[in-house]
Amino acid sequence: MTRDAPEAPTPDAPEATAPDSGVDPELCRRIEAILLIAEEPQGIVALAAAVASPVRPVRAAVSWLAADYDGEHGGYRRGFELREVGGGWRLYVREELDDLISDYVGSQVPTRLSQAALETLAVIAYKQPVTRGQVASIRAVNVDSVVRTLLARGLVTEVGSDPETGAIFYGTTDALLAHLGINSLDELPHISPLLDDVDDVATFDGEVRR
Amino acid sequence: MTRDAPEAPTPDAPEATAPDSGVDPELCRRIEAILLIAEEPQGIVALAAAVASPVRPVRAAVSWLAADYDGEHGGYRRGFELREVGGGWRLYVREELDDLISDYVGSQVPTRLSQAALETLAVIAYKQPVTRGQVASIRAVNVDSVVRTLLARGLVTEVGSDPETGAIFYGTTDALLAHLGINSLDELPHISPLLDDVDDVATFDGEVRR
Amino acid sequence: MNDPAVVEQGQGGRAESSDSGFRVSLGVFDGPFDLLLTLISKQELDITEVALSKVTDEFIAYLRAARSADELEEASEFLVVAATLLDMKIAGLLPQGELVDAEAAALLEARDLLFARLLQYRAFKEVAAWFARSMQREERRHPREVRLDPKYRARVPELVWTLTPDDFAALAVLAFTPKEIPTVGLDHLHAPLVSIREQAAIVVDMLQSAGTLTFRDLVAGIREPGIVVARFLSVLELYRHAALSFDQDEPLGDLILQWTAVRWTDENLASLGADYDT
Known about the structure:
heterotrimer, A: 210 residues, alpha+beta, Arc Repressor Mutant, subunit A, 2 domains, three-stranded antiparallel beta sheet, two-stranded antiparallel ribbon, 11 helices, 6 strands, 13% strand, C: 278 residues, mainly alpha, two-stranded antiparallel sheet, 12 helices, 5 strands, WH_DNA-bd_sf (chains A, B), WH-like_DNA-bd_sf (chains A, B), ScpB_csome_segregation (chains A, B), cell division (chains A, B), cytoplasm (chains A, B)
């Protein structure tokens, strides 16, 4: 960035953050530029590739920026924040200002998922990779059209197929994580004690119901 | 913003900028929130209306923010800047980083369209004006990122929105006609028997309740 | 079952969400159906004391009055739960004091499994509510999502385009063809159908050329049980038509078949085995 040179040493704005934090302001600038134009959450590795930097300093810079926007480095809390959601980092309006923005952009009527779709989604999220047949045996209803809806909305996706039966396995997408406001499946509520029994139940279903 | 109150006085991040500059950090936050989601440059009066504040402090806050992003208040020069263009203010990637962004966009937009992108383009061409949700229903997969690619390629464009739901309608562009070597959409080969069936797909949206 | 009212208070939040839904009024319990399930799942209410037929009657009455999609959705849900309850109840009514034999043990195990299934179903239902809340919260959030500046778009390398209008139309046809989600084939679960008539034709051929054969000869080298069965049935059919006779020298000994038909045409063959057609 040679074009940067003439401007960099402005007298009353020494790049003060760099020395004490160990974070390179030029790296931060490049990351901020990508985040400003990105239309999806950016994973650290993708960001590192975009700014042509090793992963480790990128990770450090992203953390530093998120804290900086939160006002933790002597500045003030910005109107935007850097959130890790849906497998990557993305700029968001700070939550407390959402009402202001809703008024400004005019709120769209969100299309909500039906109860059947939500339950099917929950089963896929916890049991993935899972076939429609397995989901149907847990919900005890036909889930084909619901799965179609979830596919069209990008909340689930095909993740492979059973080599023997050809049945398609479904799993959830990063878009689902983003819709839930979480960054990984680990952040789903814990229900494992109940699920421990599930595999037995599936076998049992297989023997009795077919 | 009463919800803000409990968080505001964080001990190690006193809202330091406010006292000496005379600029209200809450006002800055609100302006930043609007700027983050605004597509078009925002005039001072429009901004003042959006954040429900008199014009004068808004003008002062915008100037302060522009200087702040330039690193003039003790911070560092950000990767974005606040520029006045055509009578309004908008966030832009700092010009010195244009090459970085061009490379990034180039890497995101492939020179050849994928099969998924081509099929989506074909659906839009024959069904326009059509929403992303409708295309997704027909293709039975989520098409958001593919539509972004087509938009970025200038092959499709927004042609209006549903007054009730706010859903955006898409149509094809002259660029597509040029690629196909035809002068008008009328010259596309006829495939109507299939198109008649397409409205059936709407039932599929029944899973999604409003 | 001690006192449903007390437990209901203890349930707090859950009871609140089910107040609007289906309620039941039974001798042992009066309240939201959802709460009934909770009590059963916590073993605070004995399933054997619940009159399922009454629950079902009340639910059908409730559905008649139902108008909204929400309420109708409850219908399918109810069927799941009712079926599970019924299974549990059957298991619950069976004697379970002592494990007299393996069958009883299996039934007890089955009850536990049904129980697990009910719990699992409820777990997913509760998680689905969490999904709904999280999604509603998140859809209020505003990410940065601004059209790319045209100046960047202009620098994107030129698109490679190779399709003619006809190619493009063909793609459209492909794209508009409904993509049925492939269904799981059940073929692997059933042996392929075997035609008795086809097998009879083979049997007739073999017997006509050899005159006398044992049944063992007739199925020599055949591994598919279905074909063996079909050949045996066709032998019985041919016997009914007096086309062959058979002898067995000793019990479990070889079955000796002899072709006896004087006149035998393909028409006889066509009418053979009609009893097995469905």
